[in-house]
Write a structure and sequence with these properties.
disordered N terminus, 2 helices, two-stranded antiparallel ribbon, mainly beta, elongated
């Protein structure tokens, strides 16, 4: 009888160990100062009556539809009780392969049946992000399989943010949504200590391009999935 009990206990442990990596967890954040680009001032041309002048015009506009998040990532895996007392802790020295999620609502279910691709035709996408030259459709122009330590989702739209003022960096943002929580999810792949948009001397672990869904402000909920 003892042998049967021990065998059942051993099987239970083996089944527990076979469970996949932990799903994304709510992450604490330490926000720095917010920065905003400055639009250019008006140029001038002085002329007089009777003159015809060729004037080539260029300008840039600061988008009101998208926000950017970037920074470093740290975390660990731990065994702890309900009061947060740590029984054992595993330090993660390199978070590459993990994902930072910026969500427009809390997400209660991180299963692959609930987390699905977000498309330009989706009713979950606000009309403001469907219009204009900086619309979702003109931003998330590439598609591939999104993979994380716990998720594999096919046909996900993504874009890459700038690196050292050049397009096509290693920082990818994927467009996802949570069916059950009515949340848009902007998922940033972690590439630890990579040159950021600020230049080669300023590194970051992630950069996320996130859509603004309400005015004047949108609140984002951050989750972290570690490798």
């Amino acid at each position: 009888m003892k042998a049967k009990i021990f065998a059942s206990f051993l099987i239970a442990i083996m089944l527990a160990l076979s469970v996949v990596n932990a799903a994304p967890t709510g992450a604490s954040v330490e926000a720095g100062s917010q920065e905003r680009g400055q639009e250019g001032s008006a140029g001038t041309v002085t002329t007089e009556g009777g003159n015809i002048t060729r004037v080539n015009i260029s300008a840039y506009i600061i988008t009101g539809k998208w926000a950017g998040f970037w920074g470093n990532v740290s975390g660990d895996i731990r065994l702890a009780d309900s009061s947060g007392n740590v029984f054992y802790k595993w330090t993660i020295s390199d978070a590459t392969g993990g994902v930072v999620y910026a969500c427009t609502n809390t997400v209660s279910d991180w299963s692959s049946t609930n987390i699905v691709p977000l498309y330009a035709t989706d009713t979950a996408l606000p009309s403001s992000l469907k219009e204009g030259s900086d619309s979702f459709n003109f931003t998330f122009t590439q598609q591939e399989t999104f993979t994380s330590p716990t998720l594999t989702i096919n046909n996900v739209n993504y874009t890459t943010t700038y690196q050292n003022s050049n397009p096509g960096s290693d920082f990818k943002t994927y467009a996802l949504k949570s069916n059950n929580n009515n949340a848009l999810i902007w998922a940033g792949k972690i590439k630890e200590d990579t040159s950021s948009f600020k230049g080669s001397t300023v590194t970051a672990d992630y950069q996320i391009l996130a859509g603004i869904t309400s005015t004047p402000t949108t609140t984002f909920y951050f989750y972290l999935e570690l490798p």
